[in-house]
Amino acid sequence: MIVNQWVPAAHAGDAIGDSARKMRAMLREQGHESEIYALTIDDALVGDVRPFADPAARRGDITLFHYALPSPMTEAFAQLGRGRILQYHNVTPAHFFAPYDPGLFRLASLARAELRSLVGEVDLALGVSEFNRAELEAMGFRPTGVLPLAVDLSRITRPVRRPALEALLTADDMINFLFVGRIAPNKKIEDHLKLAEQYKRYVDGYYRFIFVGRHDAVPQYYASIRAMMDRFRLLNERFIFTGPVPDEDLAVYYRHAAVYISLSEHEGFCAPLLEAMAADVPVLAYAAAAVPETLGGSGVQFAPKDMEYAAELLGLLTFDDQLRSQVIGGQRRRLSDFTDARLGSEL
Description:
By secondary structure, this protein is an alpha/beta fold. It is 41% helix and 18% strand.
């Protein structure tokens, strides 16, 4: 059987593209022919991902369309005669972008409207989480199901050495707290700054917050974070924004993190939670959107968003060895739900 995947934009290091490539490998192992087609392809992926203009893109017995943004692929997908399977990765609600970028506000609004245009035009609609599946069902999609994101955790767990980076993270005895992802409004990076202030006031002053990921996605939002740091006289050396990093560096950041922190208010899955689990980094997470589902009762979750309370939890996760051990044990058990064998079976 030919099982093709469509991804509007193929970017190296992007969770959707990475998931598609892992699923392609699983499909091939199961004996299927499988390729990925994209409208735009990073230079690093040319030859691995095929251009959407290739006529073979429309010849699949099954076509799995990864949806997260509007594109010409949507109409083309609806016109296929058979085997149309939608995998919904969620769209960040437009209101998050309203104060910072009218263009992204419009794009997010269009994305949800375009998604609704596929109601009645697909043979199966899948969410990467139950949170996403419920949204599809509410829109009118039938039938629906869940197919989790396929996350390549080997890039986090493989042994690598980066002596210079390791020295930077350990030489000054600071406690490293980690966030991985785009610097975007739904991620609520400003709440990390508020958490740091509470942590410094009530727990410990030797800390460093590290943000790994693009900070050019919503420039005005990133500028507002920097302005907030200036306004509250926060030290730049305590808040490190790395930008994108290679996998080898990412593994080192996880390995030297005391706690992984998620304060996001909208996630359709949140792959870094699995990466933190794989690296045995305790997770402190605000329980919103799909985050509780992905964690599955593991980590330390809290709601409402009380930063003084969160700072106390962060201190316990950092310094209470017994609690850390219990949390890591729970995360390992949860991670067993995302093995390649289980994902391959569900696929």
